[in-house]
From TrEMBL:
Biased composition (Low complexity): 1-13, 346-359
Biological classification of the source: Eukaryota, Metazoa, Chordata, Craniata, Vertebrata
Biased composition (Acidic residues): 25-41
Organism encoding this protein: Accipiter nisus (Eurasian sparrowhawk)
UniProt name for this protein: Leucine rich repeat containing 58
Keywords carried by this UniProt record: Leucine-rich repeat, Repeat
Length: 379
């Protein structure tokens, strides 16, 4: 046996297994990695540090907390900050100390939870200086109230979030020129959106919007309106009043797949019948002759769009779809309101038997619309 062992050589010794790591050691290693990452970020910021630096783009890192402390001291003249794709869940108080910041890009992060935006943003220096804010691709379920105080904001992007509505207070952003809300779950548009006098580009595509409020016709600066991939079955007739509109995108809506031809009518009340008589027969009255509520009611009369009718209506009217040619190529269903079912007019081209008069009326409006719109995207 001894000779065999000598001939075959000594048996190799088995290496001892490394000792198993405990939870405490794993936590210690994670803390060390976090410290190293923070040190690397500080080194990167220090390398870029300059009192005159106006633009800063942070590369994607493990930024799960707020912005790095001391950012305002390192970059006192910062005007453009891009933290897109960094994994940020919170934009902390450090943001409030950047007095010249006019562009903040924070796309594709994890913002949207409580405290994602610092309190008092609208009253802080950036609240007065911010002009462009892009928060697309985050997790906001509602438009953050803190944003509604940014009175100088000109461009706001909240696409690809989880929004279910647009707050009426959006009208407070009076300087807004570009509003992107595509790719959310919005079901309706508040009429207050029409109170943005400078709005030129409105993107509401890829939502669940079923109707457009006629008040949007008050957006006289609007040049582009994107409504594709929604649930629209008609457009309000007032959309023809958007005199500067150059681009209207409607593809992917039911109104493109099939034109809806609805006729709904609720009989007028006795008050409405009396009000119609007063207005159509020009019965004279003074505020001293009637109670205040009736005077106010009479002021709400709407004229029937049928030029042959001359009637008025208040609450009871016929909702009817009229097909109008756009740019000589597309026929869009626009919503009209008639004073009664007996009001057969050029507007009633939604009926099966369209008359030559209705066709000529459609052509007249088409010539106006063709001058106002350069591009209608339906397909």
């Amino acid at each position: 046996m001894a000779a065999a062992a000598a001939a075959g050589g000594a048996a190799p010794e088995q290496e001892p297994e490394p000792p198993r790591r405990g939870p405490a050691e794993d936590e210690e290693e994670e803390e060390e990695e976090a410290v190293e990452a923070e040190a690397e970020l500080s080194a990167e910021l220090s390398a870029r540090r300059s009192a005159e630096a106006r633009r800063l783009v942070l590369s994607p890192r493990r930024l799960s907390g707020p912005l790095p402390a001391g950012l305002s001291q390192w970059f006192p003249a910062l005007e453009v900050l891009d933290v897109s794709g960094t994994g940020l869940a919170v934009l902390g108080e450090e943001l409030l100390a950047l007095p010249r910041l006019h562009t903040l890009l924070a796309k594709n992060n994890r913002l949207g939870g409580p405290g994602s935006l610092p309190k008092g943003l609208g009253q802080a220096p950036p609240g007065r200086s911010l002009r462009v804010l892009n928060l697309s691709g985050n997790r906001f379920a509602e438009v953050p109230p803190a944003l509604l105080g940014l009175r100088g904001l000109q461009s706001l992007s909240l696409g690809g979030n989880r929004l279910h509505g647009i707050p009426p207070d959006i009208q407070e952003l009076r300087s807004l020129e570009f509003l992107y809300l595509g790719g959310n779950f919005i079901t309706s548009i508040p009429p207050e959106l029409a109170n943005l006098p400078s709005l030129s580009y409105l993107v509401l595509c890829d939502n669940k919007i079923q109707s457009i409020p006629p008040q949007l016709a008050q957006l006289h600066s609007l040049r582009s309106l994107s409504l594709h991939n929604n649930l629209l079955t008609y457009l309000p007739r007032e959309i023809l009043n958007l005199v500067h509109l150059e681009e209207l995108s409607l593809r992917g809506n039911p109104l493109v797949v099939r034109f809806v031809r609805d006729l709904t009518y609720n009989p007028p009340s006795l008050q409405e019948l009396a009000g119609r008589t007063v207005k159509t027969r020009n019965v004279p009255y003074a505020p001293s002759d009637l109670p205040e509520n009736l005077v106010r009611y009479l002021s709400l009369a709407s004229n029937c769009p049928n030029p042959k009718c001359g009637g008025v209506y208040f609450d009871s009217c016929v909702r009817q779809i009229k097909f109008v040619d756009f740019c000589g190529k597309y026929r869009l269903p626009l919503m009209h309101y008639l004073c009664s079912p007996e009001c057969s007019s050029p507007c009633s081209s939604a009926s099966q038997s369209s008359t030559s008069q209705s066709e000529s009326d459609s052509e007249d409006e088409a010539s106006v619309a063709a001058r106002r719109m350069q591009k209608v995207l339906l397909g």
